[in-house]
């Protein structure tokens, strides 16, 4: 029938027929759109679980209720108990059970008051949605909406909605929250007795009072268990064991594992269930390690510790300890140090070394000055307050010498290094490069443990020559909204490998206490100590794992002995001992080139370098444009080589040309002090 004919047909109808059609259409549309969206106007608790779905912690909903986010996973035992108690025909009716309604009406008339509602589980779900007072008109609305709910949702979904929103006494809502609060474990582990207890509670939630109503609740629970026995759901043995179980004595606290991470995810994703990448077992072991060290460090009034363990192959955080003693309301223990800006100390030095190698501005073993210097009033000193005169660049990095690092930064350029750090993800550099100056390499800037660890991960990732990381570490299983786009500053696998090789040398005499650190596995690691002994850093890397540790006081108070080697490095190696051993990085030969250098100076072989000084080493491709050795000089000596002879003074005498290695006078003086 065409559209015009339909209109003509409608116009030919009698007035009452038109009215009936219009009213019917309005009622049909009202019925179709009668369900609210969303179904429940409720706030939910924030849940954080580990990579295997085990609960790490939770934060209460904004209305003060423990109401977990809805889930479709309802334990079979609880579902069986609930249907046996509330609605045994749930699987068969269309949302309304006329027989139950009729029986309830007869019972209410005989009693002269409401003694039975006759509501199905679907109708009770609607009642929980609407939150209105019980009236006959409201009952009629519930009937209508229950049938509509059945048309839109499966039985499994409806019973899950009920189970997630049923009142369970006090400020506990839903079976999942009740299982944790009353029994101390998840709903998946509910016993028959526990399931029966939670099935009868919504009918009389006030019975769950830890000081009264115990007998009434016990009676209702056991009556339900008897029904399950009678209908063959449970065996006689199950019944006896279930009725022997006592009711819960006191409410349980929810887990407090990785509380700083839970808080972080609560602030960014409130009211959701977030499955994190954390390994619960490893997290608990790491907590124990930090608690043990915190007990020792606190004797020196060093009160805060933070650590991060990352699976580099998966780019996932597997342990997140933002601080120790979260429950204490003192000493800044609730501060998430992992996300806090702190003075970086020497922890950025490897990035300068790597950046210079990438650009050919430095050769791996190039000789650098280690003497007192003054640059515009800035006079850096080594931690040991001693100077070697001259030191190879890779050794200077391994020993974390300050003067060679400042000299290198001056040569490379503060603005260039500043830009490099920005590309490496350090967002805490919020002032111009000139503001930091040369102190940028010695802790003049701030960084977070999170961002510093990500930068070290980028460097390790470059060595593995896999695709550059486009995201920060993932905290959430299968990734959600917690990663940020990034550009990898480490573009040369060879430079990154040489940097990590230099960092495998654990001999750090300038940090005094390096001898206390066990070296049971090969780890590329670096420590950092800020000015005034306020921050102690340690970051270690293997091909598989990264461990980053910060030690200090959240208040910023410095303490004598608060150094990277004495505190954070010791914690770091203890954390590595929790992890399985791994192989070392494969040498990225395709990203390295062989260059001939002077063994003494580490520079490219110069005109006067003797053949015996020539050495072939691996270096990044741009090393061919590096510095040429000018320390070897051609001089003349007497034939017996006892005396140096000036050529114009040796007329008619026998002289021999030789190559001598000559340091600048100031370098030589300090070198001789350390090498008598």
Features of the shown structure:
22 helices; Beta-lactamase; Penicillin binding protein transpeptidase fold; 37% helix; five-stranded antiparallel β-sheet; 676 residues
What does the model show?
It is built from 22 helices and 18 strands. The protein is elongated. With 676 residues, the chain is α+β, with helices and mostly antiparallel strands. The protein has 4 domains: 30 residues; 199 residues, Penicillin binding protein transpeptidase fold, CATH 1.10.3810.10; 273 residues, Beta-lactamase (3-Layer(aba) Sandwich), CATH 3.40.710; 83 residues, no CATH class.
- Named at the architecture level, the CATH assignment of the largest domain is 3-Layer(aba) Sandwich
Q: Within the CATH hierarchy, at the fold level, what is the topology of the largest domain? A: Beta-lactamase
Q: Provide mean pLDDT, rounded.
A: 87
* Count of domain modules: 4
**CATH first level of the largest domain:** Alpha Beta
Sheet/helix structural class: alpha+beta
Task: Quickly describe the structure.
Helices cover 37% and strands 13% of the residues. The chain has helices at residues 3-11, 15-32, 76-86, 98-111, 121-130, 136-152, 155-165, 175-183, 192-200, 214-230, 236-244, 259-268, 280-297, 349-359, 393-398, 402-412, 414-423, 433-436, 449-463, 493-502, 564-576, 665-674; strands at residues 46-49, 55-59, 66-67, 172-173, 273-275, 304-311, 316-321, 342-343, 367-370, 389-392, 446-447, 524-529, 535-541, 545-552, 593-598, 614-619, 632-638, 655-661.
């Amino acid at each position: 029938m065409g559209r015009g004919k339909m209109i003509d047909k409608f116009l030919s109808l009698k007035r009452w027929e038109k009215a009936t059609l219009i009213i019917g259409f309005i009622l049909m549309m009202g019925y179709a759109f009668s369900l609210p969206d969303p179904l429940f106007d409720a706030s939910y608790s924030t849940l954080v679980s580990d990579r295997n779905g085990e609960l790490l912690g939770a934060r209460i909903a904004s209305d003060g209720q423990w109401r977990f986010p809805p889930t479709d996973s309802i334990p079979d035992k609880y579902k069986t108990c609930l249907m046996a108690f509330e609605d045994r025909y749930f699987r068969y009716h269309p949302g309304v059970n006329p027989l139950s309604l009729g029986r309830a009406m007869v019972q209410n008339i005989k009693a002269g008051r409401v003694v039975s509602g006759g509501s199905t589980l679907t109708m009770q779900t609607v009642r929980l949605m609407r939150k209105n007072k019980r009236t006959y008109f409201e009952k009629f609305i519930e009937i209508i909406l229950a049938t509509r709910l059945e048309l839109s949702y499966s039985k499994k979904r409806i019973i899950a909605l009920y189970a997630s929103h049923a009142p369970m006494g006090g400020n506990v809502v839903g079976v999942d929250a009740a299982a944790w609060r009353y029994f101390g474990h998840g709903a998946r582990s509910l016993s028959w007795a526990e399931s029966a207890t939670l099935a009868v509670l919504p009918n009389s939630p006030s019975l769950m009072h830890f000081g009264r109503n115990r007998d009434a609740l016990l009676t209702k629970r056991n009556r339900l268990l008897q029904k399950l026995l009678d209908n063959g759901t449970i065996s006689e043995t199950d019944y006896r064991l279930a009725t022997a179980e006592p009711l819960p004595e006191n409410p349980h606290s929810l887990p407090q594992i990785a509380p700083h991470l839970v808080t972080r995810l609560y602030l960014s994703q409130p009211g959701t269930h977030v499955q994190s990448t954390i390994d619960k077992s490893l997290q608990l072991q790491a907590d124990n390690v930090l608690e043990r060290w915190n007990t020792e460090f606190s004797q020196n009034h060093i009160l805060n510790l933070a650590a991060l363990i990352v699976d580099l192959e998966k780019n996932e955080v597997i342990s997140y300890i933002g601080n120790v003693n979260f429950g204490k309301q003192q000493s800044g223990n609730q501060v998430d140090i992992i996300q806090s800006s702190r003075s970086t100390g020497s922890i950025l030095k490897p990035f300068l070394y790597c950046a210079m190698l990438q650009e050919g501005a430095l050769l791996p073993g190039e000789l650098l000055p280690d003497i007192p210097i003054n640059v515009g009033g800035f006079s850096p000193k080594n931690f040991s307050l001693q100077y070697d005169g001259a030191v190879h660049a890779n050794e200077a990095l391994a020993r974390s010498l300050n003067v060679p690092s400042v000299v290198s930064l001056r040569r490379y350029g503060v603005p260039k290094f500043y830009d490099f750090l920005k590309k490496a993800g350090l967002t805490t550099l919020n002032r111009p490069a000139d503001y930091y100056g040369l102190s940028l390499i010695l802790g003049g800037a701030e960084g977070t443990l999170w961002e510093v660890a990500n930068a070290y991960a980028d460097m390790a990732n470059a060595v593995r020559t896999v695709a550059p990381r486009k995201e920060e570490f993932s905290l959430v299983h299968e990734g959600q909204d917690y990663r940020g786009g990034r550009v990898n500053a480490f573009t040369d696998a060879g430079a990154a490998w040489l940097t990590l090789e230099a960092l495998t040398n654990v001999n750090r005499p300038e940090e005094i206490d390096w001898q206390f650190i066990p070296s049971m596995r090969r780890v590329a690691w670096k420590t950092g100590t800020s000015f005034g002994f306020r921050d102690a850093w340690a970051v270690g890397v293997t091909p598989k794992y990264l461990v980053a540790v910060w030690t200090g006081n959240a208040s910023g108070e410095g303490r004598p002995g608060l150094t990277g080697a004495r505190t954070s490095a010791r914690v770091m190696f203890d954390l590595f001992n929790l992890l399985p051993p791994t192989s070392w990085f494969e040498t990225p030969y395709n990203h390295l080139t062989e260059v001939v250098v002077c063994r003494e100076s580490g520079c490219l072989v110069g005109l006067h370098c003797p053949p015996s000084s020539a050495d072939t080493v691996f270096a990044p491709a741009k090393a061919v444009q590096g510095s040429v050795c000018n320390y070897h000089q051609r001089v003349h000596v007497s034939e017996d080589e006892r005396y140096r002879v000036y050529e114009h003074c040796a007329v008619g005498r026998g002289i021999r040309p030789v190559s001598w290695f000559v340091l600048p006078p100031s370098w030589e003086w300090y070198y001789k002090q350390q090498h008598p």
